[in-house]
């Protein structure tokens, strides 16, 4: 029977490997029979969501029997005021993950067009390409995980339709600085869509001396209509469980994405909570400063254990163990700690560790130290 089903499935789907997210805390607690576990595997906000968002979500629970307005009008208006862009330049997805998929579906011809990114890029780009039978190419990174944007430009072919660039990148945490970003923008052929995935924008933007480029400022200033910026409410806004991301782009691009988007992709609780969270700048500021000090504590502590930890502008740290990371990942799991092993990215000696609460950071570091000695 399974051979029969297999024979019905196109090659690109048969060979697709399902995305494996970080193990949920609930699953680990149940498995180990412990009362609590620490998950630092999915770059979530340890402070949770804003109280305003939780209040708005609770209020919306009274209307669960009514379909949402699929255009997310209230959220769109709030975000358009927040970002100072027109509502026609915004579209929402069930996480920016859904938008990655929608962009591939909207703009790529299966079997013909190519998506281009670099090695160790966010894993969804390759998965979406394969799911839609779109060719996928990656350019090299150097040993210190610095972006080689010239290699990216050289790899462009007449079939390249979309270039994906996560800035900062997950899982390496590195970011492209303004001069290099401008070099990429000016070097890309004008018929290629550049998707700037800024899931960690609120952590990175405005950090002194980091020259972080806010891609939205280039779309209007440089007149690049094919620039799409992706952002999310999953990270600094702490709404990962509700699934809301958005794209900012030329209204012509947004119009086509809207034709492909499912009509009720953002549920009403998510719309209400996301809109309310925009009003809580104090929560965003607190989350940003907690992530910055937590990340710096983690990098220092991991370095003092003799490991190579990479500083970043995000709420996570890449760490090179200099030996296979999977056994360490498993020993941490046995002790109730979930980190992210990077074998699926082709980095078998690396872990990605999100910034948790100060108490979680202490526990994670002490446990890594113990496990490395065992
Ligand atoms: C670079 C990057 N892009 C996109 C996403 C997807 O985020 P979400 O679908 O929760 O908005 C993530 C999540 O970790 C990410 O790191």
Task: Summarize it.
By secondary structure, this protein is of the alpha/beta class.
Strand order in the sheet with the most strands:
2-8-7-6-5-3-4
Topology as H/E string? Answer: HHHEHHEHEHEHEHEHHEEHHHEEHEEEH
Approximately what portion of the residues adopt beta-strand conformation?
Answer: 5-15%
Q: Which molecules other than protein and nucleic acid are bound?
A: pyridoxal-5'-phosphate
Global shape: globular
Our count of helices gives 16
CATH topology of the largest domain: Aspartate Aminotransferase, domain 2
Provide a descriptive summary of the structure in words.
- The strands form three sheets. A seven-stranded mixed beta sheet has the order 2-8-7-6-5-3-4, sandwiched between helices.
- It starts with a helix and ends with a helix.
- It is of the alpha/beta class.
- It folds into two domains: 21-48 and 282-373, Aspartate Aminotransferase, domain 1, CATH 3.90.1150; 51-277, Type I PLP-dependent aspartate aminotransferase-like (Major domain) (Aspartate Aminotransferase, domain 2), CATH 3.40.640.10.
- The chain has helices at 2-8, 11-14, 25-32, 51-60, 73-83, 96-107, 124-131, 149-154, 178-187, 201-204, 215-221, 251-260, 268-277, 281-304, 325-334, 358-373; strands at residues 38-39, 90-93, 114-118, 135-139, 160-166, 193-197, 227-232, 245-248, 308-310, 316-320, 337-338, 340-341, 350-354.
- Helix 4 packs antiparallel against helix 13, helix 6 (96-107) crosses helix 7 and helix 6 crosses helix 12 (251-260).
- Pyridoxal-5'-phosphate (PLP) binds next to helix 6.
- The site of pyridoxal-5'-phosphate has 13 residues, from helix 6.
């Amino acid at each position: 029977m399974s051979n029969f089903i297999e024979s019905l499935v196109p090659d690109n789907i048969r060979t697709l490997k399902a995305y494996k997210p970080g193990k949920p805390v609930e699953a680990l607690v149940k498995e180990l029979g412990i009362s609590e576990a620490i998950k630092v595997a999915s770059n979530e906000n340890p402070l949770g969501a804003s109280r305003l968002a939780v209040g708005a979500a609770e209020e919306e629970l009274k209307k669960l029997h009514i379909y949402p307005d699929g255009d997310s009008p209230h959220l769109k208006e709030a975000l358009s005021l927040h970002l100072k862009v027109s509502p026609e330049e915004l579209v929402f997805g069930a996480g920016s993950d859904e938008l990655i998929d929608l962009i591939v579906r909207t703009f790529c011809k299966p079997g013909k067009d190519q998506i281009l990114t670099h090695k160790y890029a966010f894993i969804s780009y390759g998965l979406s390409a394969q799911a839609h039978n779109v060719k996928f190419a990656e350019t090299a990174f150097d040993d210190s995980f610095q972006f080689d944007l010239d290699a990216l430009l050289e790899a462009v072919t007449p079939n390249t339709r979309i270039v994906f660039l996560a800035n900062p990148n997950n899982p390496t945490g590195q970011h492209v600085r303004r001069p290099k970003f401008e070099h990429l923008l000016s070097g890309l052929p004008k018929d290629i869509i550049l998707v700037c995935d800024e899931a960690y924008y609120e952590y990175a933007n405005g950090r002194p001396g980091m020259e972080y480029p806010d891609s939205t400022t280039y779309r209007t200033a440089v007149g690049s209509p094919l620039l799409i910026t992706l952002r999310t409410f999953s990270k600094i806004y702490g709404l990962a469980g509700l699934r809301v991301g958005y794209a900012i782009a030329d209204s012509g691009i947004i119009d086509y994405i809207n034709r492909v988007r499912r009509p009720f992709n953002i549920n009403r609780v998510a719309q209400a909570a996301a809109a309310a969270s925009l009003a809580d700048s104090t929560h965003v500021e607190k989350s940003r400063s907690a992530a910055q000090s937590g990340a710096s504590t983690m990098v220092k502590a991991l370095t003092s254990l003799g490991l190579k930890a990479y500083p970043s502008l995000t709420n996570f740290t890449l760490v090179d163990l200099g030996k296979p990371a999977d056994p360490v990942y498993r020993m941490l799991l046995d002790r109730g700690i979930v980190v992210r092993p990077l074998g699926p990215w082709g980095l078998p000696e690396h872990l990605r560790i999100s910034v948790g609460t100060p108490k979680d950071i202490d526990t994670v570091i002490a446990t890594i130290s113990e496990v490395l000695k065992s």
